[in-house]
């Protein structure tokens, strides 16, 4: 018993010496995913009632952790759609954008695509609220986008396109952008991971048990710094995929909207349909996700971006 007490004291002293350790909560991630995917209707472009209900939930959750939450409404074919933005750090400092889309394709729950990314965004908001952001050199904006999915994908109607265009027109300095696009699905068995080009399996393996940082070749200083910080966490396998944007999947999320303005951007993903057969299917449900590994992803994300924000 005495030896156990000594070990406990040593661990506690070490934690205090290093500062408070902030970790993502898998229970909170699960709660967010189940809430966002709950209900009889679907948060797609045709159902603005459900989309708005989801946006209200996101806005209320973000409002628990920062007083700076704003809506960015815009019109498409006479209907209103909304981005939700939560900010941390000095108002006029260059920005780090972290975003995830909350809409779905057609009529399906969209647990991995992309309630998982939005849940990560909301949990990150809670974690960032524990930091003294007034001393940061950069500002972090968390953005929940609407209308990433078809038929809006790669059009001016994407929420991320609207957001990026506003920043460019307002001459807002952007350090870089991180897209959270499906972060909840993992498989440990062999041959559960596929690739856009078959030979990639010789470099990345056939087990779908890792998270991926997807970036352009020669992504830039922001991308390099973030990737180093994100990979520093040893609680989940992380693999970096660097390729030209023409390789299938490299630009398939909201980060492409920021590339269009010359800003550095990357995507964090479980590789979507290259692993998850539930992609854009009614089987993309909350019970298929691994909330423990999701929490590791968000913890590593927090550690990387909070360090970068401090300069």
Summarize the structure.
By secondary structure, the protein is α/β, with parallel strands linked by helices. It is built from nine helices and eight strands. It has one domain (22-310): Aminopeptidase (3-Layer(aba) Sandwich), CATH 3.40.630.
What does this structure look like?
This protein has 311 residues and is α/β, with parallel strands linked by helices. The protein has a single domain, classed as 3-Layer(aba) Sandwich (Aminopeptidase). Helix content is 36%, strand content 17%. The protein has nine helices and eight strands. The chain has an eight-stranded mixed sheet with strand order 1-2-4-3-5-8-6-7, with helices on both faces. A hairpin with a 2-residue loop joins strand 1 and strand 2. Helix 4 crosses helix 9 and helix 7 packs across helix 9. It is globular and about 45 Å long. The N terminus is likely disordered.
Overall SS class: alpha/beta
| N-to-C series of helices and strands | HHHEEEHEHEHEHEHEH
List the uncertain runs: 1-18
Radius of gyration using CA atoms only: 19 Å
Going by CATH, the architecture would be 3-Layer(aba) Sandwich
- Give the termini separation: 44 Å
Helix content: 25-40%
